[in-house]
Amino acid sequence: MTTTAAPATAPFRFFDVHVVRSRRLGPSMVRITFAGERLDELASGGRDQRFKLFLPQPHQDRPVFEDTGEGWYAAWRVQDPAERPVMRSYTIREQRPHTGEFDVDFALHGAGPDASVTAGGPASRWAAGARPGDRLTVLAPVVQDNGGVDFRPPAGTDWILLTGDETALPAIAGILSWLSPGTRAKVWLEIGHEDDRQPLPSFADTDITWLVRDHAGGEPVLDALRAAELPEGTPYAWVAGEAGTVKAVRRHLVRERGIGRRAVKFTGYWRRGATEEDLIAELTAGTAPSDED
Ligand SMILES: Cc1cc2nc3c(=O)[nH]c(=O)nc-3n(C[C@H](O)[C@H](O)[C@H](O)COP(=O)(O)OP(=O)(O)OC[C@H]3O[C@@H](n4cnc5c(N)ncnc54)[C@H](O)[C@@H]3O)c2cc1C
Q1: How confident is the model at residue 185 (pLDDT cuts 50, 70, 90)?
Q2: Residue whose CB lies within 8 A of the most ligand 1 atoms, among 48, 57, 270, for a mutation test
Q3: Residue 50: CB within 6 Å of ligand 1?
Q4: In the prediction, which pLDDT does 66 show?
Q5: Residue 216: its pLDDT value, please?
Q6: Would you give the DSSP letter of residue 253?
Q7: Element (H or E) spanning 160, and its range?
Q8: Which atom belonging to ligand 1 lies closest to the Cα atom of 50?
Q9: How far is the CA of 81 from the centre of ligand 1 (A)?
Q10: Alpha helix (H) ranges present in 219-269?
């Protein structure tokens, strides 16, 4: 996982934000639009721009948290877990500097079409119930060229390969909207329901395969990739989603397709059975399984 235990502050900064509106995109996704003071200083690098959000505990109306600058992580860690904000990693789906707003698309995991707000984890529960005015804090970039953007195809790349699930859909949408005309991109996206498909505008020459998860099991992305004919030329692959799937896809690309390791950027966005606290605890204790395993 590339969840970082102690994300550096600079060139990121804390912003207090509030919900402007929320819109259901499909059975498993909700788009939340945020605004806040000094958001004109937020500078998303686009593509897969990651950031941290800090949620209030259910009994609080805002995150109880002091911006202590570079020392914030140590301060956050020693706070009472029942009182300190819940920290999670998300993607800036779109920033609109002219309106001072940005969007985040949340996967409502554990929630079917009848979305119970008790299923899932704290972040997906919060998103399912978010109302205009709800407050949270984000640690977000203030310069566009920042370390929270991973999608960086090197010169000489002939075509792009993208795979992910709902959690990676915002990043994939951001990447596709960033690609130049004429770029060839092949995309495999795993979703929970047919109605979770969404338009993915791009100037690139895109070939998008939507894979509706078979609740009986299987590995939709891996199975589809194994059966796929890949274009000639030098690829750059970006792979995200559930950590086990990400690892298997990376192995397939490197070992069976002969794609160079450095040409595969892979990130576990979540791991089955583990909360983000569990992943951070592993990183802090140095017991996190290696992505190379
Ligand atoms: C760089 C980065 C960017 C990300 N961007 C986004 C984004 O834009 N949108 C988005 O929705 N997610 C995104 N994620 C994933 C998100 O951070 C995780 O899904 C996170 O675990 C959700 O927090 P939670 O509080 O809802 O669940 P947690 O409390 O962390 O987990 C509770 C339980 O739910 C399981 N779980 C977590 N996520 C899922 C899931 N998607 N499906 C099924 N079970 C799950 C866990 O394994 C655990 O058992 C991103 C992750 C990273 C590292």
Answers
A1: very high
A2: 270
A3: yes
A4: 81
A5: 65
A6: I
A7: strand 159-164
A8: 1
A9: 19
A10: 220-227, 243-251
Any atom of ligand 1 within 6 Å of the Cβ of 122: yes
SS3 151: coil
The C-alpha torsion from 236 through 260 and 89 to 70, rounded to 10°, is: -110
Phi, psi dihedral angles at 115 (to 5 degrees): 5, 95
Q: Whose CA is nearest to atom 17 of ligand 1?
A: 89
Predicted confidence band at 110 (pLDDT cuts at 50, 70, 90)? Answer: confident
Rounded mean pLDDT, 30-48: 96
Reading the block at residue 200, the tokens are: 């993915």
Question: What is the pLDDT at residue 68?
Answer: 79
Distance CA(18)–CA(42), nearest Å, equals 15
Domains in the chain, start-ordered, CATH in brackets? 12-141 (2.40.30.10), 159-270 (3.40.50.80)
Ligand 1 in reach of 274 Cβ (< 6 A):
yes
More confident residue, 89 or 110: 89
d(C-alpha 116, C-alpha 11), whole Å: 37
Rounded-to-integer distance, Cα 128 and Cα 112, Å: 11
Task: Give the closest residue to 208 by CA, choosing from 195, 221, 218, 192.
Answer: 221
Pocket test for ligand 1, best of 269, 279, 283, 291 (most atoms within 8 A of CB): 269
List 161's β-bridge partners, or say none: 186, 237
